[in-house]
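Just wondering, does anyone understand what follows?

——
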Amino acid sequence: MDLAYLWFFLIGVLFVGYFVLDGFDFGVGMSLPFLGKDEVSRRQVINTIGPVWDLNETWMIVAGACLFAAFPEWYATLFSGFYLALLLILLTLIARGVSFEYRHQRESLRWKRGFDSLIVIGSAVPALLWGVAVGNIVQGVPLDADHEFTGSLLTLLNPYGLWVGLTTLFLFWLHGVYFVSLKTDGEVYERARTLSARLALPAVVFAAGTVVWTIVLAAGRDAPLLWAVIASGAVAAVALLASVAFGRIGRDGRAFASGAITIVFAVLTLWLALFPYVLPATTDPAYSLTIDNASSTDYTLTIMSWAALIFLPLVLLYQGWTYWVFRKRVTRARIAQADAAAVH
C-alpha cells in the first residue's frame, strides 16, 4: 500500500498548486471593486491574470481526476455528499470565466459592470467554499456504514468549516493583492499597497485561529503526524508575518513569495492533520474512509505513477514558460497605447 500513501501526498501537492495559483486569481478578482476605479484601472487589474487564470484552473481538474483514479471511494463519497457546495463552486467559476471573455465585447458601462460583479462573486464564493470543503474533510462528516454522507449542505456550514473558509478567503485575497502590486504601476499599485495593509490583520487572525484549531483537532484523534502538523503550522504563521512585513516596506516580490509559502504550508498543515484518514466519520470512527480502505489497486496506482513521472514535469515546464513570457508589469500607459492603436 506504499503507493496509496504516496498518492495521498501527491494529491495534496496538486491541491497546494491549485490553491497557490488560482488563489491569487481569486484575490485579484475580489480586489476589482477596490482597485479599479475607472475602466483603464479595471482592465489593468484584470489583465494581470488574463494570460494565466485558465491555466491555473487546470490544477483543479488534474487534482480531481487523480482523486477519482487513486481513491474512488473517497471521490464517490466526497462528490456526492458535497455535491451542492461543489456545484456552487463550479457555477461561479464558469460565471467568472465567461465574464473575463465577454466583458470587453460591448462598450456599455452597464454591460461591463455586470460582468465585473460576476468576476467578484466568481472569485469570492470559491475562495470561501474551498476552505469550507477542506475544513470539513479534515474535521470529518457524518457517514454511515456504507461510507455515504448522511448530512446536508447546512452540515458543512459548521464553525470550523466556516472558519477555515474565511481563512482561505482572506489568505487568497491578500495573496492576490500582492500579485497586483507585483504586476501594476501608478494608482492601482498604490491602492493595492493600501488594501494589503488593511487585509493583513484579518488574514493573520483567521490563519492563526485555523492553525491552533487544526492542531487541537489532530491532537484529539491522536494524529500520528502531530509533530509535523505543529511544525507546518508554525512555518505558515512565520511566512504570513513575513509577507505582511515585506508588503509594508514595498518588497513586492518577497511579499508575494512569502504569501505563496503561507498557502503551501497552510494546506500542508490541514493535509498532515487528516493523515491517515481521507474522510473521517463523525458518527462512528469505524465508518471512516482511510488511505487503506479508499484507494485503488496497486496496478492502477503504478500506471498513474509512471504517467505522473512523465507528464507532470512537462506541465510544470510549460506553466513556468507561460509565466516567464507574461512576466512584465501591466502598466496604465500600455493599456492607453493599445486603446489608441485600436482607434486608429
Remarks:
- The chain has a mean pLDDT of 92.
- Residues 186-220 form the longest helix (35 residues).
- The radius of gyration is 21 Å.
